Amino acid sequence: MTIYELGETAVVRAIIRSLDIEFEDCAVIDLADAEYLVATTDMFHRATDFPEEMSAWQIGWMTAAGTLSDIAAMGARPFGLLVSIGLPDLPPAFVESMIGGLSDCAHECGTAIIGGDTDSHQELTITGTALGCVRKDQILRRRGAQVGDLVCVTGHLGTAGAGMRALELGLATGDPVAVNKLFEPVPRIAEGIRLAESKAVTSMMDNSDGLSESLYQLAEVNGCGFTIHADSLPMLSGLDLGLGPDLDLALYTGGDFELLFTVAPERLVDARNACELTVIGEAISEGVFLEGDRTEEIERKGYRSLRCQDASSTDL
Asked: What keywords are annotated for this sequence in UniProt (predicted)?
């Protein structure tokens, strides 16, 4: 069996067991004062992560956004982005525009590119490493959900997936909102910080791999399960795909970079005061289910970078 056949989640589990580390969006480093340093790294490839329709600027933006989203998931404030780029033979203007996208996204998130490396490579490959800090009494981790907690998300689900579907169907010009969400996601830095400050959140991660895979990861870490209400899933109406609402987009497509988190019911008002959110379900003892006209188990699937043509990664 190869690692492609095994699947990325299983590979990451094996690495985590070998290194004896936590399964988090970021590494957590104790600075021996009132704050933790959090650090994350993400790798992106031209063939699997950047659709052909993306501009050089958007390639840079997406790389920074995908990396900084992990900082948001910890409730942390970013303070630097390191970027290493493997470059094939590209026009200088392309590289300059790509760096501009990286820098613009970093500034949008209140930080900047502080260093990095370049080298020659057969395929455009970009690795972003982001650093952040968060007070020790405010850090948000994947572990902490309790049975009865409410499951919440920021923003809308499946929009980036709708953008990818639009590209596949040749409808990109008819669905600019979804395609823009796919090409230019905005990390939920401000929302993560405010949720951390509210102290209402019991567990959190980003949903870059899609809602289904993220729910299963949270369930494993917390030893619980989740029931999700189909009619509560926040999806943008009016996406010009000609196909109508599609729950599969909300459940199984990645790239939205929204926050998925749990809140104790008595603290929901505090969480709502921190940011706009949608309650989509609750934590239960076991299983991951969708409750609609009937209750059924949610299939575990989503974006996996160890499968051909998938476009996301699992964080250690």
From this structure: Kinase, Transferase
| Residue after which a domain boundary falls, among 88, 107, 135 | 135
The boundaries of the domain holding residue 232 are 150-297
The SS3 of residue 138 is coil
CATH number of the domain to which 104 belongs? 3.30.1330.10
Q: Are residues 71 and 185 in the same domain?
A: no
d(CA 79, CA 110): 8
Element (H, E) at 284: strand 278-284
Structure tokens at 227: 């029931």
Residues contacting residue 74 through CB under 8 Å, at least 6 positions apart: 24, 25, 26, 28, 38, 132, 134, 139, 140, 141, 192, 196, 204
What CATH number should be reported for the domain holding residue 268?
Answer: 3.90.650.10
User: pTM value?
Assistant: 0.89
How many domains is the chain partitioned into structurally? 2
- Please report whether residue 208 resides in a domain: yes
**Residue 141, pLDDT score:** 97
How far, in Å, CA of 302 to CA of 214, rounded?
Answer: 9
The burial class, CB within 10 Å (0-12 / 13-18 / 19+), for 99 is middle
Spatial CB neighbours of 293, under 8 Å, sequence gap ≥ 6: none
Q: Does residue 267 lie within any of the structural domains?
A: yes
Count CB-CB contacts under 10 A for residue 219. Answer: 19
Q: How does pLDDT run across 66-96, given as a tens digit for each residue?
A: 999 999 999 999 999 999 999 999 999 999 9
Query: Which contacts (CB < 8 Å, 24+ apart) does range 29-34 have?
Result: 31/133, 34/135, 34/136
